[in-house]
């Protein structure tokens, strides 16, 4: 039984904010109830991670040439 589609399309509150991968995206996909940080490093050469401290979120993207720290990801709906 596959749950990926229903999970990714679910817009209600999960009771917690879910951070996940295993669904490659070009850029972090932040929704109101979840965030996908899988930027397909093996194929894109770009590794992205989320640093979560309480309600603060910062993100690091690293490539073979450079890295960047940022703290604003628009929420998609």
Write the layout of secondary structure elements.
Layout: H1 4-9, E1 18-20, E2 29-30, E3 34-36, H2 41-44, E4 47-53, E5 56-62, E6 67-70
Parallel strand pairs: 1-3
Antiparallel strand pairs: 2-3, 4-5, 5-6
InterPro entries: Metallo-depent_PP-like
Organism: Pseudovibrio japonicus
Protein name: Serine/threonine protein phosphatase
Key terms:
three-stranded mixed β-sheet, 77 residues, 34% strand, Metallo-depent_PP-like, Serine/threonine protein phosphatase, single chain, mainly beta, 2 helices
Query: Can you write the helix and strand succession as a string?
Result: HEEEHEEE
Helical stretch tally: 2
Looking at how many chains there are and whether they match, the oligomeric state comes to single chain
Q: Which segments are poorly predicted (pLDDT under 50) over 5 or more consecutive residues? A: none
User: How far is the N terminus from the C terminus?
Assistant: 26 Å
Assign an overall shape: flat
Helix fraction by DSSP (H/I, runs of at least 4): 10-25%
Compute the number of strand runs: 6
Please state the average pLDDT score: 87
Supply the helix-strand structural class.
mainly beta
Radius of gyration: 13 Å
What summary fits the major beta sheet? 3 strands, mixed
